[in-house]
Amino acid sequence: MIDIIGKRKWYFLISALVILPGIAAMVYSLITYGTPLRLSVDFTSGTIIELQFQKPVPPAEVRAVYLEHGYADTAVQSVGDGSTVLIRSKQLDDATKQAIEAELQQKLGPATELRYQSVGPAVGREVTRAATIAVVVGALAILAFIVIAFRGVPNAPRYGVCAIIAMVHDILVTVGVFAIFSLFLGWEADALFLTALLTMIGFSVQDTIVVFDRIRENVPKMRGEPFEVVVNRSLSQTLHRSLAIELSSLTVLTAILLLGGATMKQFVAVLIVGMITGAYSSIFNAVPLLVVWENGEVRGLFRRLRGKPAAA
């Protein structure tokens, strides 16, 4: 039997080292852009236009046309070989949009509009509010389900709280990695990002519940054994199943990432990061945290910080 729980301090340290760069990226983005992540027009008001020209065009020349029309905060990004540009700006009325596109074609040659998306401020606020409510309600539902399902186990609420903490860990890791990609690759959080995040939360919690359920089954079977031994035995019994599910899912997602369309890459990348951190947190965070709580190690740490000897 592998002693996974005995090395729990290292797992917590690894998690901290992964989360901190993401938090730093979110703080930098908050200072620079006003939000922890660069948001697409799904969450803010604005317009996205994707134009394909017959030859590569300099983004600066496209942006100059928008500047002439008074849209100083417009961002222009080249896509592929440079003949396609993605333009993000404040909302455009139909007359202004047509005038800008006509001027672009006059200066840079014929162009085909591949995408046009416009979202008003009311819609952006509604999407943001709905996303926040979805995460909060999901966390409360998970806590309630685990407390009810594990009611026959001593300290059942602890299982629910540890699952929620692991879920928050996964959100921080996934959002942090996305924030780093936002800074270096220009990624923007959109509705698909929210979908991937909620899907990742579901996978993560499912993995955690599988392990907790085996602990719940083994507690009455292994009466008299130390709780760490029961947990290590439960992890050994479920580890192969968890890894098999994760590896099969990651194989499919990696294939989609490499072979799928460009519009799916961010969505799939978020899912991959979320599934990896979800598998890690279920085994190396949620369960060790439960052991720490059951052993009273947190209380002992606080006693030592106050200068008092820990209780035996």
Strand fraction band? 5-15%
Main β-sheet, spatial strand arrangement? 2-3-1-4
Average pLDDT, rounded to a whole number, is 83
Main sheet: strands, sense, barrel: 4 strands, antiparallel
- Give the ordered list of helices and strands: HEHEEHEHHHHHH
Poorly predicted residue ranges: none
Would you tell me which CATH topology of the largest domain applies?
A: Multidrug efflux transporter AcrB transmembrane fold
Q: Quick one: CATH superfamily of the largest domain?
A: Multidrug efflux transporter AcrB transmembrane domain
What count of structural domains?
Answer: 2
CATH architecture of the largest domain: Up-down Bundle
Q: Tally the helices: what do you get?
A: 9
| CATH class categorisation of the largest domain | Mainly Alpha
The count of β-strands is: 4
Describe the structure.
- With 312 residues, the chain is α+β, with helices and mostly antiparallel strands.
- The chain folds into 2 domains: 5-36 and 123-301, Multidrug efflux transporter AcrB transmembrane domain (Multidrug efflux transporter AcrB transmembrane fold), CATH 1.20.1640.10; 46-119, 2-Layer Sandwich (Alpha-Beta Plaits), CATH 3.30.70.
- Helices cover 69% and strands 9% of the residues.
- The protein has 9 helices and 4 strands, in the order H-E-H-E-E-H-E-H-H-H-H-H-H.
- It has helices at 8-33, 59-68, 94-108, 121-149, 156-185, 191-221, 227-259, 262-294, 297-305, and strands at 46-53, 75-79, 84-89, 111-119.
- The protein has a 4-stranded antiparallel beta sheet with strand order 2-3-1-4.
- Helix 5 runs antiparallel to helix 8 (262-294).
- The longest helix has 33 residues, at 227-259.
